[in-house]
Amino acid sequence: MARTPAKVPSGEVYERIVDAALRLFTERGYFNTTVPDVARAAQVSVGSIYHHFKDKEDVARALYLDLIARMQQALTEIAGGHASAHDRCRAVMAMLFELTESDRDAMDFMLYAKHRDFLPSERPVCSSKPFETMRKFVQEGMARGEIRGMDVMVATSCLFGGAIRLITARLDGVLAEPLPAKLDEVWACAWRGIAA
Amino acid sequence: MARTPAKVPSGEVYERIVDAALRLFTERGYFNTTVPDVARAAQVSVGSIYHHFKDKEDVARALYLDLIARMQQALTEIAGGHASAHDRCRAVMAMLFELTESDRDAMDFMLYAKHRDFLPSERPVCSSKPFETMRKFVQEGMARGEIRGMDVMVATSCLFGGAIRLITARLDGVLAEPLPAKLDEVWACAWRGIAA
DNA sequence: GTCTATATCATGATAGAC
DNA sequence: GTCTATCATGATATAGAC
């Protein structure tokens, strides 16, 4: 028990590796990125990477779980700051749009990467905690009579599906304008579709 | 000009290769599939594959372009059979849901694969002809006053975003029920969001 | 803990017989 | 046109010095 307080992310090298990996994995894709590539970008040696991580897949997994956790953190804060399903879900959409602009790579890796191909043991994104939380927001809104009664998965998909589609379009470079500028329009459509 | 009528897909072997590749690429992913894997699954030799295709990427490209073309064909038929944007777009959603059930692999490879990683020269899916056609349907509906005035990309994303999200959930095995059973509910939400 | 250098292995692609 | 057998490349992962 009296060990160093260094949890899993021990020190600065770990951070550099993860940051470089995120950038390269999103730019070129996981399979087009070699461990020496990551080493070079992170300014560390190959051996150092294999000291901190079991293998390349382990780097991707750490990255993925970390991003999921950060997203879940953001959702928890939103839940604390807003009472109604309407306000919570709108805040979620705003947060997703802002994150896409401020941390493009993170969003790309979380929403757009095919994790199934390189993290076969992980569950699909839509089964992850953050997506569950979003469904919970919708479920509660339905119980409170804010949202019309229907299959929760359908309602959540309709509410956020348009936004997610725009995010991927933005990540593909198809949308020139920053997403937050579209928030009002997208939200209006999405909410109108499922509001009671 | 007096050559054999065999266009690009020449004969049965070509078909077997493409079919096997589609199945393996969606099951294991492009990078987790080797050319000998495809050869074994297609019951042909490795040399035969390299006779018909330049390399592995060329197989994926043929597959992708063929699926896009088939999708575009379906959209053209829908345009011919329905006049209003409402009817056309509803028919598109129904077609997407049915195709997901009847040809899961095709849908997976078209909508869910990260083409950018292995077909860097191709444009992103949302810039492809079928997606353009879907936007055209929406655009025309807006001009006719069926759909409220707004950014066309936003409207199209909102209209089909929920359905696409459900399709990926279904492909991930998260949804137990066949998609067509949800069509009425999804369509109602989607159309309500953007109808004038 | 971090580095360099390297062993091992599997893949994509080819050669040449039939 | 199709096959079998093989090669060359380059990746992952490790060994061992510092």
Write structural notes for this entry.
By secondary structure, the first copy, chain A, is mainly α. Chain A has two domains: 10-53, Homeodomain-like (Arc Repressor Mutant, subunit A); 69-194, Tetracycline Repressor, domain 2 (Orthogonal Bundle). Helices cover 70% and strands 0% of the residues of chain A. Chain A has helices at 11-28, 35-42, 46-52, 56-81, 85-102, 104-112, 115-118, 129-143, 152-171, 183-194. The N and C termini of chain A lie far apart (53 Å). Residues 1-10 of chain A have low confidence and may be disordered. Chain A binds a DNA duplex (18 and 18 nucleotides) through residues 11, 13, 34-36, 44-48, 50-52, 55-56. Chains A, B: Residues 11-71 form the HTH tetR-type domain. Chains A, B: Pfam families: TetR_N. Chains A, B: This is Possible Transcriptional Regulator, TetR family. Chains A, B: Keywords: DNA-binding, Repressor, Transcription, Transcription regulation.
Query: Sheet bearing the most strands of chain A, described?
Result: none
Q: Count every beta strand of chain A, where a strand is a DSSP E run of 2 or more residues.
A: 0
- Report low-confidence residues of chain A grouped into runs of 5 or more: 1-10
Radius of gyration of chain A: 19 Å
Q: From the coordinates shown, what is the CATH architecture of the largest domain in chain A?
A: Orthogonal Bundle
**H and E order of chain A:** HHHHHHHHHH
Large-scale geometry of chain A: elongated
The two chains with the largest interface, and their residue counts, are: A-B, 43 and 43 residues
Please identify the oligomeric state.
homodimer
Number of domains of chain A: 2
> Which structural class best describes the helix and strand composition of chain A?
mainly alpha
Count of DSSP helices of chain A?
A: 10
| Terminus-to-terminus distance of chain A | 53 Å
Give the averaged pLDDT of chain A, no decimals.
93
Question: What is the percent of helical residues of chain A?
Answer: 55-70%
CATH level 1 name of the largest domain in chain A: Mainly Alpha
CATH T-level fold name of the largest domain in chain A: Tetracycline Repressor, domain 2
Protein name (chains A, B): Possible Transcriptional Regulator, TetR family
Keywords (chains A, B): DNA-binding, Repressor, Transcription, Transcription regulation
DNA-binding region (chains A, B): 34-53
Domain HTH tetR-type (chains A, B): 11-71
